[in-house]
Sequence to fold (302 residues):
Amino acid sequence: MAFRKLARVEDVPPGRTKFLHADGKPVILANFEGRIYATFGLCPHRNNPLEGATMWDNLIDCPFHHFQYDVTTGENYFPENVYPKDYNRLQAQLRPLKTYAVELRNGEVWVDLE
Amino acid sequence: MGKVARQVVEQAGVNVDVLLDKLLRAAGAEFTTFYYYTILRVNAIGFDGEGLKEIIEDARIEDRNHFEALTPRIYELGGALPRDIRGFADIAGCPDAYLPQNPRDMKAMLNVLVEAERCAVRTYTEICNMTFGKDHRTFELALAILHEEIEHEAWFSEYLGEGPSGHFRRGAPGDSPYVKRFMTADFK
Fold:
């Protein structure tokens, strides 16, 4: 476990995201209903940065192609929910976002980037 | 390109390169959606008689109209459509609206349609938010498209049993009541 401080809690208000780099690694923090989640900061679809991503309930929405991921699990929601299952090339686009463990310590957001 | 037309937008505080990227992705999504909705429409056989087919046709033609209306604004601001249509499809700002694995599954087809429209609603809301009070021409255009995309979402949502759309059919397929004033080629 290698937790490091990435932000203060007030830097990530409910329903918002914050994109940053930690040791050169892109990370995005997202606040869903008051709980802060951390995931890898590049969209697995085309490796575009999730900087400026918006939140729709528990879903983080990539600003480039609007692929959506559940911040609580990292799993793709859209377009997984509509892509045909028999088209293997498409299934490869639906890889999940890597999620990281988060701890709040005295108003600070600590993330385990391992 | 309109030199002053771009300059006034820049001076209002809009990053025109970012805006152009969003407009190009939006235009790409409209163009690809027009293609995919053609496939969905021809496969919407016997769903509520021809009712669903007619609604897909409205949305299909209006999405093409959105592409037509966006293109001049992209060039006015100094942008251009990609020379290679494959590149254009790749930058499309919404996932492709594929025909479901089982084309006879009406609910699966409606989910494809409603999710495509929801993506479009988010896209134009972002552009409106970015240009409101700064780039009046792009804002007006994006708002007109947003009106139609919201109506499309409501139509398909109604079919999914999520509640009434509050709308009645267009006078003619692809009438584009909000966007047609931005189109110079197809409407008189």
Remarks:
- The helical segments of chain A are 88-91.
- Chain A is about 5% helix and 45% strand.
